Hints:
The protein is mostly helical and 153 residues long. It contains 8 helices and 5 strands; from the N terminus they run E-H-E-E-H-H-E-H-E-H-H-H-H. The strands form 2 sheets. Strands 1-3-4 form a 3-stranded mixed sheet. A two-stranded parallel sheet has the order 2-5. Helix 1 (6-13) crosses helix 2 (40-47), helix 2 packs across helix 3 and helix 6 packs antiparallel against helix 7 (116-131). The longest helix has 16 residues, at 98-113. The radius of gyration is 19 Å and the shape is flat. The protein starts with a strand and ends in a 9-residue tail after the last helix.
Amino acid sequence: GAARGGGVGLVAAADVVVASNAATFAFTEVRLGIIPAMISPFVIARLGAARARRLFLTAETFDAEQAQAWGLVDYTVPEEALGRKVAAVCQDLMRGGPNALGEAKRLVRSVVAASPTEVGALTAEWIARLRATDEALEGMGAFLEKRTPRWVP
């Protein structure tokens, strides 16, 4: 199916995107006399400023293969494989520590926002703080004992 305007914004805001290789995308707001303001930070982060500007201005439709090449989509699969691929991605996510997943997302935002001189101290503080958590101790213990961490269903 087609993701247009705000629908593409939801795609851009997602952490992991799986799309049918038959999907199409477009930012059509300018054709309505408006702009994609609310979704723009997410789209620009995924696509870059120059590509986002072009797509916002032209409202052109692009396919899933192009969306993947540009980084808007992470995986493209045939329609009949969507459920299996989404299940596989969810299974991968469930293997991560629940707290660590949220911290990893915050880490990316913090590193992107930090100046190059701040990144070293920021990341050192982050790892020192998280290594002492119960979740990290469980994860490392499970690794060393060659077992599955308790949070994995």
